């Protein structure tokens, strides 16, 4: 499994609506997302993701990469806060928690980890939602991987990409 990045986008590449991924998610995406979380040793997110998404409970330890001293995940006794780069966080998490690392950070974190060749697998869900913010080029993101498979569940397209 290694380091897996997960991202949901709308059909127009929107990564959020009203600053949250729930606006571009679907029931099928949510089900796959929750299952993926139960199969890893640790989840890594950025501070911005932690401030906008519900991370008060996670099934495994949660590492929040942030320079801020403000705790955005009150009540999550599994949360740790590291002031370091995403690449350093992956290296440190691997030593402390194990090989199965889930990246739930935004596309800038994912792109940084791709540039360091630290993403073993990308799980990208594309839903029918549109009109959100922070749009990405889906094809450009997938172009960083040599093997891309696609499946459709209801109206959600699931891409699984590896090198």
Give an overview of the whole structure.
The structure is a single chain. By secondary structure, the protein is of the alpha/beta class. It has one domain (3-162): Dihydrofolate Reductase, subunit A, CATH 3.40.430.10. Helices cover 26% and strands 26% of the residues. The protein contains five helices and eight strands; from the N terminus they run βαβαββαβαβαββ. The protein has helices at 27-37, 47-52, 86-96, 107-115, 138-142; strands at 3-9, 42-46, 62-65, 79-82, 101-103, 121-126, 147-153, 156-162. It has an eight-stranded mixed β-sheet, sandwiched between helices. Strand 2 (42-46), helix 2 and strand 3 (62-65) form a beta-alpha-beta unit. It is globular and about 35 Å long.
Using only C-alpha atoms, the radius of gyration works out to 15 Å
Number of domains: 1
Briefly note the CATH topology name. Answer: Dihydrofolate Reductase, subunit A
Taken as a percent bin, the fraction of beta residues is 25-35%
- Tell me about the largest β-sheet: 8 strands, mixed
Number of E-state strands: 8
- Sequence of strands across the biggest β-sheet: 4-3-2-5-1-6-8-7
Structural class: alpha/beta
List the uncertain runs: none
Order of helices and strands: EHEHEEHEHEHEE
Residues in helices, as a percent range:
25-40%
CATH class: Alpha Beta
Annotated CATH architecture: 3-Layer(aba) Sandwich
Report the average pLDDT across residues: 94
CATH superfamily: Dihydrofolate Reductase, subunit A
Q: Categorize the overall geometry.
A: globular
Question: How many alpha or pi helices?
Answer: 5
Distance between the termini: 12 Å
């Amino acid at each position: 499994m290694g380091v897996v990045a997960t991202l949901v986008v709308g059909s127009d590449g929107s990564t959020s609506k009203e600053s949250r991924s729930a606006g571009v998610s679907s029931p099928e995406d949510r089900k796959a997302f929750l299952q993926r979380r139960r199969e890893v040793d640790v989840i890594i997110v950025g501070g911005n993701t932690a401030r906008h998404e519900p991370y008060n409970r996670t099934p495994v330890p949660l590492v929040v990469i942030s320079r801020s001293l403000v705790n955005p995940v009150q009540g999550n006794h599994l949360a740790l806060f590291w002031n370091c780069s995403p690449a350093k966080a992956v290296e440190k998490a691997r030593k402390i928690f194990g090989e199965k690392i889930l990246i739930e950070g935004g596309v800038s974190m994912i792109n940084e980890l791709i540039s360091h060749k630290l993403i073993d697998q990308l799980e990208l869900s594309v839903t029918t939602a549109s009109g959100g913010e922070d749009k990405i080029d889906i094809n450009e993101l997938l172009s960083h991987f040599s093997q891309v498979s696609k499946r459709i569940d209801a109206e959600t397209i699931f891409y699984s990409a590896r090198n």
